[in-house]
Every structure is written in structure tokens, then in C-alpha cells.
């Protein structure tokens, strides 16, 4: 069995990450030109408040999430964390990798002094909701609201 490890994603991990994102949003809009994708990737990787994390089984990217640390003027000026784009490759689910990654991301937030970490999911199935609860997230404490960007003519 290959070892599991977690680390920040490196420049060369982009294509593996995009492959995971294709599983996360299979009907997503097409990516822009490669140069623009690379610019966004560089912006993410160079921002100290953003932590794009990957869990690897051997050399294969199996899970990923993005942790954003947001400065804040409430709660004694303690920041908060937001986790987005949580994805586990379909063939690596139910092995504890996703939970380990979320616990790792939360630990980074705690190290940065965050007073809370949040995430949202559009999934309604009990298995997914129980998965997030197993990683320390509470679905009962707060209510999330979501607004989509308006559709703009191209």
C-alpha cells in the first residue's frame, strides 16, 4: 500500500489539480486560455493567505482543498478560515484521506489564529454531511446563504 501524505500544492501539480476539479464540477464552464490559468495559479500560490493543499497517495494527487485565511476586525481582530473546492478522487473515497486533509487545513487555520473555519457544500446526501461532521464541522450552528453571480452577455 502506498503512503499518504499532505503538502501544499506545487507549481507542477496544476494539471493533476485540474483533473480533480473536473470530477468536482463535471459540467463547469471551459477554462480560459492556459496563460490565464497559469496567472491565476501563480496568484493563488504566491498569496500567503491562501493554502492550496493536496493529499497524495504515493505520487498521485488524491484529495485537495483550498483554505483562505481572511483578516477580520471582529473577534479581537482574529481572522477566520474558509475551505473551498474540497474534492477526493472517486477511486480514493472512504479511506480517510479527505478527513485527514480537512483536519490538516483546520490545523493551519488554528496556527494562524483563526477563531473559526467554515465550509459550504451543495450536497444534501447524508453520507457527505456526515463526512464533514467527522472532520469537526457542525451543520447546525449557522445557516449559510449563497448568491450566484449574474449572467453577463459576452
SSE layout and pairings?
Blueprint: E1 4-8, H1 14-24, H2 34-46, E2 50-57, E3 60-70, E4 80-88, H3 97-111, E5 117-119, H4 126-134
Parallel strand pairs: 4-5
Antiparallel strand pairs: 1-2, 2-3, 3-4
Give the H and E element order. Answer: EHHEEEHEH
Percent of residues in helices comes to 25-40%
Tally of discrete structural domains: 1
CA radius of gyration is 16 Å
Please, what is the average pLDDT? 95
Q: Which architecture per CATH?
A: 3-Layer(aba) Sandwich
The count of DSSP E runs of length 2 or more, i.e. the number of strands, is 5
Strand content bin? 15-25%
The CATH homologous superfamily is called Gcn5-related N-acetyltransferase (GNAT)
Q: Please report the first level of CATH classification, the CATH class.
A: Alpha Beta
Q: Rough shape?
A: globular
Largest beta sheet, briefly?
A: 5 strands, mixed
> How many helices?
4
Q: Please mark out the parts with pLDDT under 50 across 5 or more consecutive residues, or reply none.
A: none
The fold-level CATH name is Aminopeptidase
State the end-to-end CA separation.
49 Å
Label the structural class: alpha+beta
**Strand order, sheet with most strands:** 1-2-3-4-5
Amino acid at each position: 500500500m502506498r503512503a499518504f501524505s499532505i503538502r501544499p500544492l506545487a507549481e507542477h501539480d496544476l494539471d493533476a489539480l485540474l483533473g480533480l476539479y473536473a470530477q468536482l464540477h463535471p459540467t463547469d464552464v471551459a477554462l480560459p486560455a492556459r496563460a490565464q490559468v497559469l496567472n491565476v495559479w501563480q496568484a493563488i500560490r504566491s498569496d500567503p493567505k491562501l493554502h492550496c493543499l493536496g493529499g497524495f497517495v504515493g505520487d498521485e494527487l488524491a484529495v485537495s482543498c483550498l483554505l483562505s485565511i481572511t483578516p477580520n476586525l471582529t473577534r479581537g481582530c482574529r481572522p477566520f478560515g474558509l475551505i473551498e473546492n474540497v474534492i477526493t478522487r472517486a477511486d480514493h473515497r472512504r479511506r480517510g484521506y479527505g478527513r485527514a486533509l480537512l483536519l490538516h487545513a483546520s490545523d493551519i487555520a488554528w496556527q494562524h489564529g483563526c477563531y473559526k473555519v467554515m465550509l459550504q457544500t451543495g450536497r444534501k446526501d447524508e453520507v457527505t454531511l456526515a463526512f464533514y461532521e467527522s472532520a469537526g464541522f457542525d451543520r447546525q450552528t449557522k445557516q449559510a446563504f449563497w448568491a450566484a453571480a449574474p449572467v453577463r452577455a459576452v
